[in-house]
Design a protein that fits this description.
Number of helices: 11
Family: Belongs to the peptidase C1 family.
CATH class of the largest domain: Alpha Beta
Pfam families: Inhibitor_I29 (PF08246), Peptidase_C1 (PF00112)
Protein name: Cysteine proteinase
Largest sheet: 10 strands, mixed
CATH topology of the largest domain: Cathepsin B, Chain A
Number of strands: 10
GO molecular function, one term: cysteine-type endopeptidase activity
Distance between the termini: 72 Å
Organism: Triticum aestivum (Wheat)
Helix content: 25-40%
Order of helices and strands: HHHHHEHHEEHHHEHEEEEEE
Shape: globular
Length: 379
């Protein structure tokens, strides 16, 4: 009895794959992903043949220009490598969509150098500056909503673009304080990252390379420490972003948001969700290795390190991300990035969560919450 039923199930699965190309392409990931990393397929040859046409389209779409023919040839070679890399990422991460992005002409090293910038250890994160960070108290988790998104409640500002500056940490910091200030004042102020880039040089003396350093990297908890000492953060309008290190022009009379306190959240998804719902968007670190080729969907790579190299903003979570390979719902975190609206899902990234994935890409490892000083609601 069991064998005919098994055959029927296999036939049904085969029919589904034939009828639905998305399912068929996702099923390629069934092979051992470690093998897929080193063994190509026929489609890779097709990518090779069409690389120049794809590259020409890429250059037009993203307005790329290169100084001479040699640079153009070099970037075409890098682009060809990234086509292969995107294909490997697709096999390792079948519930997301990977392909050509605006970063497809950059080597992995160039991408890390220019567009990441979280360069501190978890020890520094936990300590904060002079021990000023403390553990967030445990919150009740009963009755948490199954889905929650601060964008729907007015606490999230527009997607921004850090440009070729390793200042992701400042966008994570400002985004968290924007949300906290909204909860405290009732008004969403779009805050300045450039103030942090120019003026925040807080250090942990016990840690080498643990100083916030503008386009050369930083950490959200030390940035919160700087803001608590400096008095607060100006608006983006008053202190606009330039994407480069400059002299500090902070004007204390123009402070728009003030830090009351900040905490580090335990590596526990329920506590992270509870802090998100109670305190607003959270500043987090993540391993961004799969983000260079990410286009959309719920990212849930089979293999992803937990070395944290990018600061982003956690704004919500969902429970209905469809994963065709596994034929079930895949819950996810909703992350606001700082690479502009022409990356990812209009500037956002989804990464899987839940007991079966356990801190995918380190997304639960470096989470901090901030509260703002309460003032009367502004008109």
């Amino acid at each position: 009895m069991a064998r005919p039923r098994l055959r029927l199930l296999l036939v049904a699965a085969a029919v589904l794959l034939l009828l639905h190309p998305a399912l068929s392409s996702a099923a390629e990931g069934l092979e051992d992903p470690l093998i897929e990393q080193v063994v190509g397929g026929d489609a890779e040859n097709e990518l090779e043949l069409n690389a120049e046409a794809h590259f020409a389209s890429f250059v037009r779409r993203f307005g790329k220009s290169y100084r001479d023919a040699d640079e153009h040839a070099h970037r075409l070679s890098v682009f060809r490598d990234n086509l292969r890399r995107a294909r490997r990422h697709q096999r390792l991460d079948p519930s997301a969509v990977h392909g050509i992005t605006k970063f497809s002409d950059l080597t992995p090293d160039e991408f890390r150098e220019r567009f990441l910038g979280l360069r501190k250890s978890r020890r520094s994160f936990l300590k904060g500056i002079s021990g000023s960070a403390h553990d967030a108290p445990a919150l009740p988790t009963d009755g948490l909503p199954t889905e929650f998104d601060w964008r729907e409640h007015g606490a999230v500002g527009p997607v921004k673009d850090q440009g070729s500056c390793g200042s992701c940490w400042s966008f994570s910091t400002s985004g968290a304080l924007e949300g906290a200030n909204y909860l405290a004042t009732g008004k969403l102020e779009v805050l300045s990252e450039q103030q942090l880039v120019d003026c925040d040089h807080e250090c942990d003396p016990s840690e080498p390379r643990a100083c916030d350093a503008g386009c050369n990297g930083g950490l959200m908890t030390t940035a919160f420490s700087y803001l608590a000492k400096a008095g607060g953060l100006e608006t983006e309008k008053d202190y606009p972003y330039t994407g480069r290190n400059s002299a500090c022009k902070f004007d204390k009379s123009k402070i728009a948001a003030q830090v009351k306190n900040f905490s580090t959240v335990a590596i526990d998804e329920d506590q992270i969700a509870a802090n998100l719902v109670k305190h607003g968007p959270l500043a987090i670190g993540i391993n961004a290795v799969f983000m260079q080729t990410y286009i959309g969907g719920v990212s849930c790579p089979y293999i992803c390190g937990r070395h944290l190299d990018h600061g982003v903003l956690l704004v919500g979570y969902g429970s209905a991300g469809y994963a065709p390979l596994r034929f079930k719902e895949k819950p996810y975190w909703i992350i606001k990035n700082s690479w502009g609206e022409n990356w990812g899902e209009s500037g956002y990234y989804k990464i899987c969560r839940g007991p079966h994935v356990k801190n995918k890409c380190g997304v639960d490892s470096m989470v901090s919450t901030v509260t703002a000083i309460h003032t009367s609601k502004k008109e």
